[in-house]
């Protein structure tokens, strides 16, 4: 029996959807499990023992070719977590007995089972986890409601990251935090002039060392943030240490006492490594869609709506997305400080 899961989206989505393989492996130990993803997201599922095959289509690969390959595989079930028109056609024409997707006008006539994305979470796992696991229900009644995403690092990767940190003179007996200063776009990035005083507060309260999650093309923005910080804070920032690959970032984060920054893929990856997280949500986003496994202690998130809900009254989602700059301007550091202090107190050595 072969089962295909499709998640042609961003890193956080690919990681979160990987929980389906742990559930499927436990229920169908002999099944052959395939995952279709973009090539750049592969590092978050690398070494996952529950996935038998990773399929990474070429950018120019035709839909006809993908459908033909799926038919040749003879899948028992295709689970389309992405559910856009292209993947819906692939799922619907795959020939699988079970063709499962989210409910949209173009998936309903093509699939055997469709599910709404809108659910109210029943567990601390959150809606993002529960709505994915619910997609497995046509295959069995025995699937759990929650599973935590996991990242599988090799011992060598962990050891190399530790060596990189200690060779720079960082004492791992002190607090070490990874800072996710830049989101995937400006619309998902907390303003740097607001983030700088939060970093100053971290150093004042914990005297921690800080690492930054960035790539070389983002260095100018990171250096701008560095200059906005107080001299005492700059002394504890180590810009020379950063993940030169996604796996290296994961290995560095493994040694941190927490990840603090913009909600997104890096937060989800830290949670999958069982590292405490403090996430700042972009104001136009719906917090309930992504605040998985939050307990107010190890995992905390903040959203402008938590402090001033009046700004959001009678505002449609499209309007909120257009107003992202104004909303971020209203999301002042003093709103965040109390919850951040709580996080630091709980997750400091």
UniProtKB/TrEMBL annotation:
InterPro entries hit by this protein: Glyco_trans_9 (IPR002201), LPS_LOS_Heptosyltrfase (IPR051199)
Keywords for the protein's UniProt record, in alphabetical order: Glycosyltransferase, Transferase
GO biological process terms, semicolon-separated: lipopolysaccharide core region biosynthetic process
Lineage, highest ranks first: Bacteria, Pseudomonadati, Bacteroidota, Flavobacteriia, Flavobacteriales
Top-rank lineage group of the source organism: Bacteria
GO molecular function: ADP-heptose-lipopolysaccharide heptosyltransferase activity
Pfam families attached to this UniProt entry: Glyco_transf_9
Organism of provenance: Christiangramia lutea
Any single GO CC term annotated in Swiss-Prot or TrEMBL for this entry: cytosol
Protein name per the record: Glycosyltransferase family 9 protein
Keyword Glycosyltransferase among UniProt keywords: yes
PANTHER family per record: ADP-HEPTOSE--LPS HEPTOSYLTRANSFERASE 2, TETRAACYLDISACCHARIDE 4'-KINASE-RELATED
């Amino acid at each position: 029996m072969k089962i295909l899961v499709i998640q042609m989206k961003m890193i956080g989505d690919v990681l979160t959807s990987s929980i389906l393989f742990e559930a499927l492996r436990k229920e169908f130990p002999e099944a052959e499990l395939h995952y279709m993803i973009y090539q750049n997201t592969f590092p978050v599922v690398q070494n996952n023992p529950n996935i038998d095959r990773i399929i990474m289509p070429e950018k120019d690969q035709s839909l006809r070719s993908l459908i033909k390959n799926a038919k040749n595989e003879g899948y028992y079930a295709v689970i389309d977590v992405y559910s856009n028109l292209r993947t819906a056609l692939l799922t619907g024409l795959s020939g699988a007995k079970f063709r499962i997707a989210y409910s949209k006008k173009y998936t309903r006539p093509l699939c055997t089972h469709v599910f709404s994305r809108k659910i109210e979470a029943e567990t601390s796992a959150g809606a993002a986890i529960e709505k994915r696991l619910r997609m497995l229900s046509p295959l069995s009644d025995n699937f759990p409601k929650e599973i935590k995403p996991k990242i599988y690092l090799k011992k060598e990767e962990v050891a190399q990251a530790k060596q990189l940190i200690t060779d720079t003179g960082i004492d791992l007996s002190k607090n070490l935090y990874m800072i996710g200063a830049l989101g995937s776009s400006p619309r998902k990035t907390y303003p740097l002039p607001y983030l700088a005083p939060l970093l100053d507060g971290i150093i004042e309260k914990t005297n921690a060392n800080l690492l930054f999650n960035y790539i070389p093309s983002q260095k100018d923005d990171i250096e701008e943030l560095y200059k906005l910080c107080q001299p005492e804070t700059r002394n504890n920032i180590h810009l020379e240490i950063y993940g030169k690959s996604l796996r290296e970032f994961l290995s560095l984060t493994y040694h941190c006492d927490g990840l603090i920054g913009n909600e997104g893929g890096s937060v989800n990856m830290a949670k999958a490594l069982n590292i405490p997280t403090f996430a700042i949500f972009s104001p136009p986003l719906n917090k309930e869609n992504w605040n998985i496994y939050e307990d107010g202690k190890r995992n905390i998130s903040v959203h402008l709506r938590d402090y001033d809900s009046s700004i959001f009254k009678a505002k449609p989602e499209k309007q909120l997305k257009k107003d992202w700059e104004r909303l971020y301007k209203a999301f002042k550091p003093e709103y965040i400080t109390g919850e951040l202090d709580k996080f630091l107190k709980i997750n400091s050595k």
